[in-house]
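new request in #modeling-help
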Amino acid sequence: MRVTITDIAKRAKVSPSTVSRVIADNPRISAATKEKVLRIMKEMNYHPNIIARSLVNQTTKIIGVVMPGMAEQSLQHPFYPELLGGIASMANNQGYKILLANVSTVDEEREMVKELTFGGITEGIILLTSRDDNPTVDQLVKNGFPFVVIGRTENPYVNWVDNDNFLIGYQLATHFIEQGHQEIAFLGYSPGYMVTRDRLNGYKKALQEHNIPFDPALVIESKFISDNGYDLMKQILVKEKRPTGVIACDDLLAFGAIRAIHEAGLRVPEDIAVAGINNVPLADYYNPPLTSVKINAFSLGTKAFEMLRTIMGSEIQSYNRAIIPAELVVRSSTQR
Amino acid sequence: MRVTITDIAKRAKVSPSTVSRVIADNPRISAATKEKVLRIMKEMNYHPNIIARSLVNQTTKIIGVVMPGMAEQSLQHPFYPELLGGIASMANNQGYKILLANVSTVDEEREMVKELTFGGITEGIILLTSRDDNPTVDQLVKNGFPFVVIGRTENPYVNWVDNDNFLIGYQLATHFIEQGHQEIAFLGYSPGYMVTRDRLNGYKKALQEHNIPFDPALVIESKFISDNGYDLMKQILVKEKRPTGVIACDDLLAFGAIRAIHEAGLRVPEDIAVAGINNVPLADYYNPPLTSVKINAFSLGTKAFEMLRTIMGSEIQSYNRAIIPAELVVRSSTQR
DNA sequence: TATAAGCGGACAAACGTTTGCATTGAGGGT
DNA sequence: ACCCTCAATGCAAACGTTTGTCCGCTTATA
């Protein structure tokens, strides 16, 4: 049997309310009794029951983090844990805990979000998603629960945090063009994901600014992160018009692509230059070291939490967006 | 204002207890009222308050997962998220949620665990640790809270799940020896971590069985995962007696080592064979593809949860251990 | 017909807190 | 000596559930 506030009260010969006020450090309690109660609390190894406390003051100090398909390969990507780390570190600082919900299907996601919003256990939600047709988001908007999405969302009523993926695509393409490339493949476009769409658009913009015609044949679609770049790159290498540069939507894709290029007897960057996105730890150690874009996932996480706190704490409705700067990291894989 | 069970009761002209029993699908409620109440619940968009429920029946369906230094680089390692995914998927199936606690310091860990155990919010804890002098573990043992550690622990009163790291070291070394190697370096030994100690011992055993003298100079210490293998490998390459094989305690270390070897103008595996541990996704795509050991982190997670459930559900005290088999994956980096 | 049995539902206590308000007692001003 | 004030503490309601017990009604049994 756990020791409760009344046990303390009895032992200290005061009322439970007094004990409660001691815990809250209420100034109306005299120093003498405060000290006595505290001593007894130590003696009996008392710890307040968070559930009971939550019930009365309707606040749990818990936020929910909903991630898609943790069971799948996607979570093996270093991006997720770094993001999670950002959220967690900020949350910790402010005395919040994180309820982690991993969902595999859309239905599961909807059900989980429903439970988290109405169950009274979380005060706010951070949702990881980059698919743009997300019914969960609409649902959250509808019932006015505080939430922040990581990943740009077109629904105007949502608060989100993201990198500027358009700019990322633009900067990468510009970098290639400045290095003298004209035929630049775009690897890993995935129509359902806004991330890749934005990046592709940025890429197009850069081409346009330099009067390079856009060639749809150079865009290779894939199921976002999961597909491996090796196979995708092979698709490119068999084409008659071989590109001299490859922008991959993810470093892992880029690694696969480089391997395919090597196998074809070509060199990186001399024959084909390759860049990835996300700047995974290995990018720097790969052979050749891979040009990439540092996404600052950790900051993405801290910012998301900060935004969520703002929303939860404020009476006035508002819709916020935050852009976390990404930075191009040029390495040998794109430098002659 | 959230809609409560009494709101439903009023509207349905029944008592709150009846509504509660409808939710619990209690057979004492007639089909007619059950149907009526359910309809009204839908209409009013009712969802039970989990906090209140938890308070009365002393069960939250939440388990805590305590990870060290999420804020640090360690969590970027694919191992953690895969493990987390295993825990989460199993937890989800059984209607449990996960409270994620990331702690940066030992003090923080102790404080967090105290809160989780006494706060009444979690029913059990999974602790990730591989340091063997862990005061948190002793604390948990002392107050009899159900918990499982991921990582072998010497304290006899703890339940744990782990790979057989001794066997992993043994198998890797044997593999090298069978390939004709005699001078095999061991990269990434970290005295504070049982996992690397076990692996080193397995390695020694294999040497001994083949009458190869153990040479301490071939063991390169490092701060577990964080150090990069590139620098460590350089330390080896300057030595007069160059090994022909390298066992790295982690794939990331191995990648760095390979890079250093290449830079020194040597080839893998012809001049020096290299193997890692953990079998990260990239191991298969690296150049050359890296021999590694599949750790099955996902199973580690599911098993840990399963064990925790067993402990929580059982009255009788018992101390359980589980070994998740690891499997050697031989690739070109160690094959002539 | 009287009564036991059984069904469906209501009542109220309990879970461990917090908090507005009431109560008590001491001290000070008149 | 009286009242007022104020400080320190106690009382009890409330948060939203669950659940043991009791009650009234119907139906079957003797």
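bot summary: Residues 14-18, 21, 28-30, 33, 52, 54-58, 120 of chain A lie near DNA strand D (CB under 10 Å from a C1').
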